[in-house]
Design brief:
Length: about 750
């Protein structure tokens, strides 16, 4: 077994893929169907046994109730899938674990190796909770090590495998998958891969295109001909029909990437409410599909513009646009990106496997932890072997690099000469003298390759000595900067007025891993004599610091009364040591000086604490109405105070009439809007343009939702709520423009 992880997995919404790093580059491991990708689909039979991949996918039409798909989009949520045939209930993490098990089984069958570790990719837009849920899925699948790598970084690594072609460039990674969008601006200056800026949407992908095709083309077409089951009358029958139509929409979408039109045959849909067999044919054109894609593509381009603006670049500054994900094969997507940005698109690597390839390349540079597997890095030295500690960079953008070593143990002085050979015979160092148990040797690398080396040693009489480790590897390619934190991580605190606000701990773009100690004070007294009480440490992700609800809840750490020996008084110091590792997994340690005690645990959200997105969805239209009303009042205020484009923040503006952002529940945006009122509004023409832009987006959003506020689709509900939360955060950001 290799001392390095070597295996990479792209755990996708629609399809997943596993790869292994070999000397010549990453190798895609095919499944039993001789396919490079495996559908991320699970079916549970009446017996309770599970079926994963293509066979499960093919059962969507005949047995939709007992098939689970797209569960990546509800990772980290309060969601369970019930399979009625067997009665089994599985969480998104358990379903994802089944996909991982299938991929690992394929790798074991093809390579003969027991896969105990793999680098798993996640969208850069994933929240910390979703990353933590992915880690739980890896554990359930039996993996011992599972570093998480952001998908855009993985794709860039794959494209940068030959640094002589990739050096000193600026790329935009456009990763539109089945369920998520990631847009990352990356630089390869000096042979180092660095993420300059990122934007993303966890609820924007190919599946949303399928949904629009079903809702706006298929259902209206069939409703004219049949008495289809209505969602409000027979929710289960409607859901089954929708699932089958979505299956047909996906196939049609794929067909139209290369054809101008396709014939969709509606078969096996059962009977309508009047007993008629639902069978029909529809000719769908690429132009009709592209009309449905338009609004989603506009959202993609807006996020792309935001990423470029954050990196202080424009489209013409880019050398390439790297396309990742199946939906990027649509001609409209490619043409729109090229026209909008003025840069050429590049899909020379298979967009379906490029992320997994990059994950394997990265995994080949990560040594296994001590004690994991049979020959993990740092494991105990075998009897009779001479231990040596090696120091080298696992990745080098230069064709030459350096390795240093130090022999240890009681026999360290026996080593008098060392030699390093490339395992393929490409190069040898020849024998080098060891001085004071130390050596240093320059290495020559094969460009664009994973270079494996063998280490030999001999004593003063020329006798060979067995050393451990006796081999190591260095990849020639772009070196990788530490991944940036995509969202600010904050602790919820109370301000002087008693309102909830956020205290930032790790600002957005903090390089990972990171750790920090911060001091807060207990908001109330915690007594051992009062059971079922606690001090709660609440963490959030997001940039709206004065409005916690406009951010994403990461989770809580509770210090329960049962865990303290004596009371913790109100105002007592709490020293929080917060760690975020490279996989974005968060650990919090609390030291309470008053007790001289430490409390440590990972951050989590208990099931009963998670928000009910289906319930929140019902309130979205009212919130939009309130936001639009406030924006209308703000427009009037800016017009009255600022005239025809003048800056309304001058001395003649008292700000007394600045509109309050209030509805029945109280201040929606406490603090920031009040501060804007005190400052007299401000912002001039730029603020006015942003107000108009937000108003248009809210109006379009309201039209898009329509009557779907009663939806029972948990993923759809969360997507809508999170999009509204993003708009709310942008409203909060208006104060920054004042």
């Amino acid at each position: 077994m290799s001392r390095y992880i070597d295996f990479g997995i792209d755990l996708g919404t629609t399809n997943s893929c596993i790869t292994r790093m070999r000397g010549g580059g990453p190798e895609v491991i095919q499944n039993n169907d001789q396919m490079n990708v495996t559908p991320s689909v699970v079916r549970v039979l009446k017996s309770g046994s599970l079926m994963t991949g293509r066979r499960a996918y093919n059962a969507i039409v005949e047995d939709p109730d007992n098939v689970a798909l797209e569960f990546k989009r509800v990772m980290g949520q309060k969601f369970e899938k019930t399979f009625p045939a067997s009665g089994r209930v599985l969480t998104p993490e358990e379903l994802s674990a089944e996909v991982l098990k299938a991929l690992v089984a394929d790798a074991r069958r093809r390579t003969g190796e027991e896969v105990r570790a793999a680098c798993i990719t996640v969208p850069a837009a994933f929240t910390a909770l979703q990353c933590e849920a992915t880690a739980r899925a890896a554990q359930l699948a039996g993996l011992e090590e599972y570093p998480l790598l952001q998908e855009p970084i993985a794709a860039a690594i794959a494209y940068g495998a030959r640094p002589e072609e990739a050096r000193d460039q600026r790329w935009l990674v456009f990763d539109l998958g089945g369920g998520t969008l990631d847009v990352a601006v990356v630089s390869t200056r000096g042979g180092r891969l660095h993420v300059l800026e990122h934007r993303g949407d966890n609820h924007l992908g190919g599946k949303d295109i399928d949904r629009l095709v079903v809702e706006n083309i298929f259902l209206p077409f069939l409703s004219e001909r049949f008495a289809l089951p209505r969602a409000d009358a027979d929710a289960l029958a409607h859901k089954r029909l929708f699932r089958k139509l979505a299956f047909a929409a996906e196939y049609a979408k794929i067909e139209l990437t290369s054809a101008e039109q396709t014939v969709v045959s509606f078969l096996d849909l059962g009977e309508d409410d009047e007993g008629n067999l639902i069978e029909a044919e529809l000719t769908l054109t690429r132009a009709e599909l592209e009309r449905e894609v338009g609004p989603l593509l506009a959202r993609c381009l807006r996020l792309t513009d935001e990423a470029l603006a954050g990196a202080r670049l424009t489209g013409p500054d880019l050398d390439r646009i790297l396309l990742v994900g199946g939906p990027t094969q649509m001609p409209l997507v490619r043409a729109a990106l090229e026209a909008h940005l003025g840069a050429a698109v590049d899909s020379t690597l298979d967009p379906m496997t490029v992320v997994a390839r990059g994950a394997a390349i990265y995994a080949s540079t990560v040594e296994r932890r001590e004690g994991t597997g049979d020959v993990a890095a740092g494991a105990g030295v075998s009897a009779g072997r001479l231990p040596v500690r090696l120091a080298f960079e696992p990745v080098s953008a230069a064709p030459q690099t350096l390795v240093a070593g130090k022999f240890g143990g009681r026999r360290a002085d026996e080593a008098r000469e060392v030699k390093i050979d490339a395992d393929n015979g490409f190069w040898t160092s020849g024998w080098h003298a060891v001085k004071d148990q130390l050596f240093e040797i320059p290495l020559v690398l094969q460009e664009g390759q994973l270079n494996r080396f063998l280490l030999s040693a001999r004593d003063s009489r020329g006798r060979a000595l067995e050393v451990e480790p006796g081999e190591f590897q260095i990849r020639h390619g772009l070196t990788i900067s530490a991944p940036p934190l995509p969202h600010t991580i904050s602790v919820e605190v109370s301000n002087a007025e008693g309102a909830a606000t956020l205290s930032p701990v790790f600002p957005r773009r903090t390089l990972l891993p990171a750790e920090k100690t911060v001091t807060y004070r207990a908001a109330h007294t915690l007594r051992p004599s009062e059971p079922e009480t606690s001090l709660a440490i609440k963490l959030w992700e997001g940039e709206a610091l004065t409005d916690p609800q406009a951010n994403t809840w990461v989770g809580n750490m509770h210090i329960e009364s049962e865990r303290v020996r004596r009371p913790v008084p109100e105002g007592a110091e709490l020293h929080l040591h917060i760690k975020v590792d490279a996989s974005r997994l968060i650990t919090v340690e609390v030291f309470i000086p008053h007790l001289n005690e430490h409390f440590t645990e990972s951050i989590f959200v208990a099931k009963d604490e998670e928000p009910d997105y289906l319930e929140l969805l019902k309130g979205v239209p009212v919130e939009i109405e309130n936001y639009l009303a406030w924006l209308e009042r703000l427009e009037e205020f800016l017009t009255e105070r600022g005239g025809a484009g003048e800056d309304p923040s001058g001395d003649d503006s008292s700000g007394e009439d600045f509109p309050e952002f209030i509805y029945e529940g109280g201040d929606l945006l406490p603090g920031e809007m009040q501060e804007m009122r005190r400052s007299g509004g401000g912002g001039g023409r730029g603020l006015r343009e942003e107000v108009l832009r937000l108003r248009r987006e809210l109006e379009d959003f309201d039209l898009e939702i329509g009557t779907r506020v009663e939806s029972d689709d948990q993923d759809y509900a969360r997507g809508i709520v999170e999009r509204l939360r993003e708009l709310r955060a942008r409203l909060a950001g208006l104060e920054g423009r004042a």
